[in-house]
Amino acid sequence: MNIAVFASGNGSNFQAIADAVKEGRLKADIKLLVCDKPEAGVVERASQAGVPVFCFRPKSYENKAAFEKEIVEELESRQVEIIALAGYMRLIGDTLLHAFDRRIVNIHPSLLPAFQGKDAIGQAWKAGVKVTGVTIHWVDAGIDTGEIIAQQPIDIKESDSLRSLTAAIQAEEHRLYPDTLQRLTSSISRRESEKI
User: N or C of the chain: less Cβ packing under 10 Å?
Assistant: First the structure.
């Protein structure tokens, strides 16, 4: 299964996916990293992993459709089958959604539908909930509204700080995302072979 990872930041989830591929836990090839911030730490991680990078600056394009059209061309030229969003801080537009319908996956640091959007860990912390977690879902036109694929709850302990909670959520993301991608790639491969 050929996958592309989209990221905007440090890239710890990219690293978890790349490590899982290297260890054979995720039977996939990372064909491309797509990054909207050329100075982001994830670019160096991709370089060290030998993964090609497509960096772009959104403001240098006329509109979202223009840069997404170029991204689609990059993905199609590498025969990418699934997109894994890993801290990609941009809403996916119609161009990408249409080209990769039900083939774009996102990870979000809450138990959706609770705490959608930015700073989900901070939102949960401020709300004083006792349980939060991690959600992996299909991407649709909304913000964190797509069909849920997998969830893992995480208890917020009395001894937790925002920092320790963030660390616990990230550790769970790094386990759950590669495992879920492996399940998805296996089921998609089965579906494809049944068509033949």
Answer: C
